[in-house]
């Protein structure tokens, strides 16, 4: 058979192509509209592709004809609007559908042209994209009527079949140390179907495939990669993803630099992971005995989705926790340690996070080889020595300096609660949660019932905390709790404008605590004095529609309402 060749559309960093190269395919061309992506693609596959907009192929068959005819066409249309991060489902899907259409037009022309060389095509996307695909696409659906007629086909002939040609795969099943679920659509043309690759690894809870090795874990990768804080050396290390690939640490790029986070950053992430208002609890730092969570295209250390490790540097507060290095992220995506990424740190992270895991695409490449009755390549073909010329290496071999703490935007919204007990949260906010409206320089006490977005919310006016004193005094340690709140804690509450300023600057002023610290301090006090008991609401109902409530939540309501009452009180000259 002729040489096995690949055309990669929306090629990005080239992860999809890398998996095919590892199975003996030659990558001949890539299309992307982002320069760091094309630069990275060209660098790793020794090509000279130019930046192009895939939408150009939506309107010009002549432009499609200029693309090389290959054995396989692959592509990853960037459909952010289909992503799980678009939880509301209200994002505009039209651009995503247009990009998919551009891809399918190219596949249709390459598949149905006379003397076609195409043997297979594959399209990768987020899982929710499947529901937006049509069961079939005719030439008319793809605006290829004139081309179809000129090629001896009718406009309503089927050009592409999608029904039963799409599935969701988890990269962990194919040796990637990351639980990354993605949709793969496609067709092996001589079989007229999409072949599901045989899994190479299994979930340890799955007893039916016990002969397979279990998922690779985050710990297995972190233990094999050199520590990011070691001195520069020529010590050899073995790439855990590619047995037999050994590399000097002096040749390992984008790994030996400090990714430590300011305390304000990692604490925000921790709060969202372990104490989110209405979402489940996540590990902080990461649970290393499982595959990593999904690497995202945006590297941030303050979000719920952030991947956070404890730093190798012995630090407390600033720099105590860190995000992965670009090399760690690339390894979790199953890129070989010799694969290079071009651009700034942010660009490299985006290239990695948007990529297709080579371990996944390698297994789909194997299904093509099997369909063509070609032998499987057992040991992946990878570059043995990194190509470093022209690569801006992120390595510094220096510990970071934390002297420029991040600040928030003016008017940033604040919402925090000490804990979730009894399906209730008691919240301090600088906006009205019931209608999302800002309140200027006023702080609000509110209670939320339930754990879902949009759950019932009830606001409490200032000075209500005094109504609860007689109840709290009946609690064990209740009198002591009230004494601590009113003598010590209350002195750390600033005026409303100062509270907002401290929140935006993420720092305390004098004896005043910024609001995140106030909530942390309140939670500590309640933990110290509360017991795990409930209060039965009879004559006095504090939380409507509740028969019993945790005593800790009444304490939380007392403390937060005290904060609002003090902060919102008019200043007297």
TrEMBL record:
Keyword GTP-binding applies: no
Positions annotated as active site in the UniProt record: 79
Keywords: Methyltransferase, Restriction system, S-adenosyl-L-methionine, Transferase
Catalytic activities: a 2'-deoxycytidine in DNA + S-adenosyl-L-methionine = a 5-methyl-2'-deoxycytidine in DNA + S-adenosyl-L-homocysteine + H(+)
InterPro entries: C5-Methyltransferase, C5_MeTfrase, SAM-dependent_MTases_sf
Enzyme Commission identifier(s): 2.1.1.37
Entry coiled-coil feature ranges: none
Taxonomic superkingdom: Bacteria
Transmembrane annotation, as ranges: none
Family affiliation: Belongs to the class I-like SAM-binding methyltransferase superfamily. C5-methyltransferase family.
PANTHER family listed in its UniProt record: CYTOSINE-SPECIFIC METHYLTRANSFERASE, DNA (CYTOSINE-5)-METHYLTRANSFERASE 1
Protein name as catalogued: DNA (cytosine-5-)-methyltransferase
């Amino acid at each position: 058979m002729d040489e096995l060749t690949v055309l990669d559309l929306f090629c990005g960093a080239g992860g999809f192509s890398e998996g095919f190269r590892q199975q003996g395919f030659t990558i001949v061309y890539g299309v992307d509209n982002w320069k760091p992506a094309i630069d990275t693609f060209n660098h790793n596959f020794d090509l000279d592709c130019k930046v192009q907009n895939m939408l150009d192929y939506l309107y010009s068959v002549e432009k499609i004809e200029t693309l090389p005819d290959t054995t396989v066409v692959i592509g990853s249309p960037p459909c952010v609007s289909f992503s799980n991060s678009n939880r509301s489902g209200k994002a505009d899907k039209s651009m995503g559908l247009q990009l998919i259409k551009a891809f399918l037009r190219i596949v249709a022309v390459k598949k149905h042209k006379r003397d076609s060389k195409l043997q297979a095509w594959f399209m990768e996307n987020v899982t929710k994209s499947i529901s937006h695909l049509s069961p079939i696409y005719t030439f008319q659906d793809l605006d290829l009527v004139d081309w179809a007629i000129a090629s001896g086909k009718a406009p309503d002939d089927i050009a592409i079949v999608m029904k039963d040609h799409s599935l969701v795969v988890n990269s962990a099943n194919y040796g990637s140390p990351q639980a990354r679920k993605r949709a793969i659509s496609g067709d092996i043309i001589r079989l007229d179907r999409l072949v599901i690759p045989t899994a190479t690894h299994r979930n340890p809870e799955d007893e039916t495939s016990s002969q397979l090795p279990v998922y690779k874990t985050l710990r297995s990768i972190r233990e094999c990669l050199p520590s990011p804080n070691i001195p520069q050396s020529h010590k050899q290390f073995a790439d855990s993803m590619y047995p037999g690939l050994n590399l000097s640490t002096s040749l390992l790029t984008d790994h030996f630099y400090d990714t430590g986070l300011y305390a304000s950053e990692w604490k925000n992430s921790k709060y969202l992971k372990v104490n989110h208002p209405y979402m489940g609890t996540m590990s902080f730092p990461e649970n290393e005995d499982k595959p990593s969570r999904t690497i995202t295209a945006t590297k941030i250390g303050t979000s719920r989705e952030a991947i956070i490790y404890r730093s190798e540097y012995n630090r407390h507060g600033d720099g105590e926790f860190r995000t992965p290095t670009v090399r760690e992220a690339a390894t979790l995506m199953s890129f070989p340690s010799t694969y290079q990424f071009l651009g700034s740190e942010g660009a490299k992270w985006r290239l990695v996070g948007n990529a297709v895991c080579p371990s996944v695409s390698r297994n789909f490449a194997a299904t093509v080889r099997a369909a063509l009755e070609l032998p499987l390549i057992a040991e992946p073909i990878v570059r043995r020595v990194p190509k470093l010329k022209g690569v801006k290496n992120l390595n510094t071999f220096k510990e970071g300096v934390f002297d420029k703490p991040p600040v928030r935007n003016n008017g940033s919204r604040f919402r925090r609660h000490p804990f979730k007990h009894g399906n209730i949260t008691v919240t301090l906010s600088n906006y009205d949660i019931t209608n999302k409206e800002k309140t200027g320089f006023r702080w609000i006490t509110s209670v939320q019932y339930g754990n879902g977005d949009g759950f019932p919310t009830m606001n409490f006016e200032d000075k209500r905390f005094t109504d609860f004193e007689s109840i709290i005094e009946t609690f064990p340690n209740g009198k002591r709790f009230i004494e601590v709140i009113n003598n010590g804690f209350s002195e750390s509450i600033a005026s409303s404008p100062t509270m907002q300023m401290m929140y935006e600057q993420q720092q305390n002023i004098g004896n005043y605590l910024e609001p995140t610290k106030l909530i942390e301090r309140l939670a500590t006090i309640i933990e110290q004095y509360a017991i795990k008991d409930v209060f039965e609401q009879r004559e006095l109902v504090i939380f409507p529609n509740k028969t019993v409530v945790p005593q800790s939540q009444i304490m939380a309501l007392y403390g937060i309402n005290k904060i609002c009452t003090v902060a919102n009180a008019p200043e007297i000259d």
